[in-house]
Design brief:
Elements (H helix, E strand, L loop, with lengths): L4 H9 L14 H10 L2 E4 L5 H14 L4 E4 L13 H9 L3
Parallel strand pairs: 1-2
């Protein structure tokens, strides 16, 4: 799960299916859809303060209902700013 559609496209290009929040907060409807359709979620939110706060919120909410892992994007970066190789390394690091 990422914040925006450019992030979503880049993570998908790296070989990982993704969905976008379209912002840095998760709605109740988005939470329900994620829980209904997935057993696990990886959070790949921006490496800024709002992205870190959003990751903490999503971890708290989703973590009670499914397996969740948060990937640390480098400070000040967004997933779409990383190369495909950097994304693969980040996402494969916990597999």
């Amino acid at each position: 799960m990422v914040e925006g559609f450019f992030d979503c496209m880049k993570v998908s290009q790296a070989g990982f299916p993704s969905v976008a929040l379209m912002g840095c907060s998760m709605s109740d409807a988005q939470e329900e859809l994620l829980v209904q359709h997935f057993q696990a979620a990886w959070l790949v939110l921006d490496g800024d303060e709002s992205g870190k706060q959003a990751a903490a919120n999503c971890l708290s909410r989703l973590g009670r209902r499914m397996w969740v892992r948060s990937v640390l994007v480098p400070e000040g970066k967004q997933p779409d700013m990383l190369s495909i190789e950097e994304l693969r390394a980040l996402l494969n690091s916990g597999m």
